[in-house]
Design a protein that fits this description.
Blueprint lengths: L23 E2 L5 H11 L19 E2 L37 H9 L5 H8 L18 H4 L5 H8 L1 H64 L7 H4 L3 H8 L4 H21 L11 H14 L3 H8 L3 H20 L7 H6 L3 H6 L3 E11 L6 H7 E2 L4 E10 L5 E4 L3 E2 L4 H8 L10 E3 L7 H6 L3 E3 L12 H24 L17 H15 L3 H4 L1
Parallel strand pairs: 3-8, 8-9
Antiparallel strand pairs: 1-2, 3-5, 4-5, 5-6, 5-7
Length: 526
């Protein structure tokens, strides 16, 4: 696209060509967070008058909508700043509390009981028509003993008043009888529940007593040391064995680093069904010990005294979190930083070296699909594998980690699709093995490629080519040492089952980037 990518927010004129100072962000895969982004953008859709726009895989939103710096940070979970409005920071929604005023209004509008309506009927009286004249004294009607008006009202309608009163009393008595019956039933239920509660109290007390006795027996017969982070970090040898960190100071620094984004990542995952029983300290120890020592989930369940399903949930959460959080770091150092920490052996022969490349393969279980079997079979390893590209700086700092690819992919194809060449600058040098036939790609970025020379049909190398091969091999071996250091995470030494295929790429990246935290860069130590 010649015009670059445009921000998908209506009214925002930023493009990737005109606004290079801001970050460009994809929409999250999490459906809960993705819906919040779409609702805040409020872009009209095409399926109806009130429909919202649906983002595609190519849709981007610039970092100016997340914070004032123009670059989205890890804590910015949803866009906030728009041309017409500003949102507060995204937080989890609180449950709604019923409105007591509305409840009172609803109760006030309830219809009156029937016996209240009957009482109102008693206020109705019967009157004679106004045109009817009362009989005059001495008239034939008066002399015949005609009753007065008051007597007519009292005697002619006495049945109406008496009937209404009797009906109201009968209704009231019936309701009182029903209430008395319900009250008696509740009293009996209460007595029964109190007896059951007392029996359960005695049973709980008995079980607690049995539990205390069982704990005493276990503590007396089988001494058990809790496998906790507090116990492990007190012994430097245990800390190095189970986590890979060579000092407590480096581990505590890493702990504070991951703790900063732990709560934010939990909120971004949406509501959880159950919180893990373990604390954050022990969750981190569980994940690091499985990466470093290769402990199985059942073994970890025994060590932490939890169910194996809890181990699986903690493992899945932390591997995804560490892969996402560590990827936020800019671990591709600048040219000035690389030169500042350039070892003497590179300054003399290859002073412009920016990165040293090499590929490594991880064994995987044979896939069920025969096409995937063919794509992942490595003739070099004689096994189904996944291949990854690793790049280090001259002093041994891991500066580039690619996504995993099928084991049959060549080093050249993997390097081309990894995006490494986009990071190179004019004047840089790339050092690699003979299998990296990427001269054109590297030179297109204005950089140089240093690889050992080929025979080219000759029986043997010339003296000059042999000297060059020795010089490159002498310094390129450091990347193989870093890969060997990464393979100290024993989880990478085994064969990954097909059930772990979704988390394999995250495990590979976490192990590679942890090498920068566990100890000093390789050549800085020497």
């Amino acid at each position: 696209m010649t015009g670059g990518t445009t921000c998908c927010v209506p009214g925002c004129a930023h493009t990737t060509l005109t606004a290079k100072h801001v970050s460009w962000n994809r929409f999250p895969k999490n459906s809960h967070l993705r819906n919040i982004w779409v609702q805040r953008i409020n872009r009209k859709g095409t399926t109806g008058r009130f429909s919202l726009w649906t983002p595609t895989s190519d849709s981007r939103i610039c970092g100016a909508h997340f914070n004032e710096t123009g670059r989205k940070k890890y804590e910015d979970k949803a866009p906030r700043f728009f041309p017409t409005r500003t949102f507060p920071k995204y937080v989890a929604a609180c449950p709604k509390v019923p409105n007591m005023i509305c409840a009172r209004k609803r109760h006030a509008l309830q219809p009156l009981p029937a016996y209240f309506l009957s009482d109102l009927d008693l206020a109705q009286t019967v009157t004679l028509p106004a045109s009817q004249e009362p009989a005059q004294p001495g008239s034939p009607l008066a002399s015949a003993g005609a009753p007065d008006t008051d007597d007519v009202i009292a005697s002619d309608h006495q049945y109406s008043i008496t009937g209404c009163i009797d009906q109201a009393l009968r209704d009231r008595i019936r309701q009182l009888e029903e209430l008395a019956s319900a009250n008696e039933k509740l009293r009996k239920d209460n007595d029964r529940l109190q007896k059951e509660n007392e029996a359960l109290r005695k049973k709980v007390a008995h079980l607690e007593e049995m539990y205390d006795k069982a704990e005493e027996v276990i503590d007396a017969t089988i001494p058990f040391q809790n496998f906790t982070l507090t116990a492990v970090q007190q012994d430097p040898k245990k800390l190095a064995f189970y986590t890979g960190f060579d000092s407590l100071e480096r581990f505590l620094a890493f702990y504070k680093f991951v703790q900063a984004g732990y709560e934010a990542h939990k909120e971004s995952q949406g509501p959880q069904r159950r919180s893990p029983y373990l604390s954050m300290d022990d969750q981190l120890l569980l994940v690091l010990s499985r990466l470093r020592v290769g402990l199985l989930e059942q073994d970890l369940a025994y060590r932490f005294r939890i169910h194996i399903s809890t181990v699986s949930r903690v493992w899945t959460f932390w591997i995804g979190y560490l892969a996402d959080y560590l990827a936020q770091l800019n671990y591709w150092p600048s040219r000035q930083v690389v030169n500042k920490h350039m070892p003497e052996c590179f300054i003399e022969a290859y002073p412009s070296t920016r990165v040293i490349l090499d590929c490594t393969e991880i064994f995987i279980e044979t896939p069920s699909d025969f096409r995937v079997q063919s794509d992942t079979y490595s003739s070099y390893k004689c096994h189904n594998t996944a291949k990854g590209l690793l790049g280090i700086t001259p002093n041994g700092f891991v500066s580039f980690v690619s996504d995993l690819a099928p084991g049959r992919v060549s080093d050249k194809a993997l390097t081309a699709c990894s995006g490494l060449c986009n990071l190179l600058e004019p004047g840089d040098s790339v050092m690699a093995d003979r299998g990296f036939l990427i001269t054109e790609e590297v030179e297109a970025a204005g950089a140089n490629l240093n690889i050992p020379p080929f025979l080219g049909g000759r029986l043997q190398l010339s003296l000059e080519d042999e000297a060059k091969t020795r010089a490159i091999a002498k310094v390129r071996i450091h990347v193989e040492r870093v890969i060997g250091q990464m393979k100290c995470f024993r989880i990478l030494r085994g064969t990954f089952p097909n059930s772990m295929s979704k988390s394999l790429d995250s495990i590979w990246k976490v192990c590679a980037l942890l090498c920068n935290f566990t100890r000093e860069p390789l050549l800085s130590r020497s």
